[in-house]
Write a structure and sequence with these properties.
By secondary structure, the protein is α/β, with parallel strands linked by helices. It is 32% helix and 17% strand. The protein has 17 helices and 16 strands.
Length: 466
């Protein structure tokens, strides 16, 4: 085979201009055309030992699907992806490819890696536009039943994998809509809910049933589910927000990111008055945190009508956990960054927040996270005027299931304890994966754990061995 010509730079992704998109909720990026996708796929060097595949948590055969895209055979490309990834239109949009498959791309050593995520998104969207969804033939029923708690990325992934093997799968979702964090947490302009619905519908087409408004731990306990189902998978995510523990945190206008984004996304506050969901708009909005959720909140504030949106983060930009693309988009849209800054106290008048007192930091030695520790600079106090504040510093699993389930071991912050090789919990027949065992993490990490769990559940159902 002749040696391929190296094309150093990837094809740029067309997107809305920043000054237009801050006034709408349409998706920021437009996606590749067929011509752009083929051109980008041609950049793949077709390595004998493709490192990109080792970097994929759900083991997509990346080299094979890129070859099909390069040939213009988009049908085969999406079929290859769906062998291991039931949610490609979602992962193609929100998966942190830059620290996974693309980081290990050979081109990344000297040039820009192949835009694997963008190509995954392209073929998933192509399939939807083509209108011919290729569903696998139903497997022979095994007679076994599995209850999946939560319809987020982990729950949808484990449900799809188990349904393909012939098990009867029912998902129990506490909210009125499916998708978990995909629906309540990630804004429309980053992940359109029509895309989430499309991927959920695909999982349901495999024979999966979803029951909404069913709160496991309240409507029924895990122990009660085990009376009817042969196994249970916990994919409940991390919906309990963390707070700062500083004065003034209970003032009106101070939100957790969970509440702020749920009101805007799931409850459609951004479409007021068509949806009668109240949310404080704010002229000057401060978001505390440096992850993707903080970027989502700060960018949502602009679209809701804020004149200024400010990020307060205690470390430098280099330590920010948010994706580089999300930080870049936030900067393009005019979000201001107060870096190396720690919040000390909220102040207010008549019960509502009016300001945030802060302190400047400098970076010290790395802490347990591997990032350099912020060290306060004495006497560097300053104040930021604000009428809405959003706290986006992390979240933990809800304690409802752990408190109502016998023999289920948990660790710090209510994290469910599992055997990482099988995702088995301490309770026979119960498995778990995603944010409920990691705390707030990524969509693709949750999916990777769900695939491990699905394999272990299938083995358990076949052998009965625990």
């Amino acid at each position: 085979m002749p040696k391929k010509t190296i094309i150093p730079l990837r094809n740029p992704m067309p997107e809305q201009p920043p000054q237009e998109r801050i006034h709408n909720y349409n998706e920021v990026t437009y996606g590749y055309t067929a011509e752009q996708a083929i051109a980008e796929a041609r950049r793949c060097l077709e390595c004998a030992k493709p490192g990109c595949m080792a970097g994929c948590p759900v083991n997509v055969d990346i080299r094979a699907f890129l070859e099909r895209v390069e040939e213009g055979d988009f049908r085969s490309a999406i079929n290859i992806i769906k062998e291991t990834n039931a949610l490609p239109a979602i992962t193609g949009r929100v998966c942190p490819q830059e620290v996974q498959c693309e980081e290990t791309c050979l081109l990344a050593k000297k040039y820009e890696p192949v835009a694997i995520g963008r190509l995954e998104r392209f073929v998933a969207d192509w399939e939807a536009i083509d209108g011919l969804m290729n569903n696998p033939s139903p497997a022979k029923p095994t007679g076994k039943k599995v209850a999946v708690v939560g319809s987020g990325p982990a729950g949808l992934t484990v449900a799809a994998d188990l349904a393909r093997t012939g098990h009867k799968v029912t998902i129990f979702e506490a909210l009125h809509a499916s998708g978990g964090v995909l629906s309540y947490g990630i804004p429309e302009f980053r992940l359109p809910k029509s895309i989430v619905k499309r991927e959920v519908d695909y999982v349901c087409s495999l024979g999966v049933e979803i029951k909404h408004d069913f709160i496991v731990g309240n409507t029924a306990t895990v122990d009660e589910l085990l009376e009817t189902y042969d196994a249970v998978f916990l994919g409940t995510g991390a919906g309990l927000p963390w707070f700062l523990g500083i004065p003034g945190e209970n003032l009106g206008g101070v939100y957790s990111s969970n509440e702020y984004l749920t009101r805007s996304n799931l409850m459609k506050a951004y479409r007021f008055p068509d949806y009668d969901t109240p949310i404080a708009i704010g002229r000057r909005v401060v978001t505390i945190g440096g992850g993707n959720t903080a970027m989502d909140a700060a960018r949502t504030a602009l679209r809701l009508g804020a004149h200024e949106s400010i990020i307060v983060y205690r470390r430098s930009r280099a330590e920010m956990p948010a994706r580089a693309e999300e930080i870049h988009h936030a900067e393009q849209e005019g979000v201001q960054f107060h870096l190396l800054t720690s919040p000390l106290a909220f102040s207010g008048e008549n019960g509502r927040v009016t300001g945030l007192e802060c302190l400047k930091n400098e970076l010290g030695e790395p802490d347990a996270s591997g990032r350099r520790r912020p060290v306060p600079i004495a006497g560097s106090n300053f104040r930021i005027e604000t009428d809405v504040a959003i706290i986006a510093i992390g979240q933990s699993p809800s304690p409802l299931i752990s408190k109502t389930t016998r023999d289920l071991q948990t660790a710090r912050d209510g994290i469910v304890t599992v055997d990482k090789a099988s995702m088995k919990t301490s309770k026979r027949g119960v498995f778990a994966g995603g944010d409920v065992v990691t705390g707030g993490a990524t969509v693709i990490m949750a999916m990777g754990q769900a695939k491990i769990a699905a394999s272990a559940i299938n083995e358990y159902l076949e052998t009965g061995s625990w």
